[in-house]
Amino acid sequence: MQAEDFDVGAEIAALRQGATGSGAFVTFTGIVREYSSGRADGATSDKQLTAMTLEHYPGMTARTLEAIEVEARSRWPLDACLIVHRYGRLEPGANIVLVITASPHRLAAFEAAEFLVDWLKTKAPFWKLEESGAGGHWVEAKAIDDKAADRWTVAAPGPAQHRKAG
Amino acid sequence: MKLVYFAWLRERVGIPGESVTPPADVTTVGALLQWLKARGGGYAEALKDLSVVRVAVNQEYAGPDAPVRPGDEVALFPPVTGG
Question: What structural domains and CATH numbers belong to chain A?
Answer without folding.
Answer: 8-153 (3.90.1170.40)
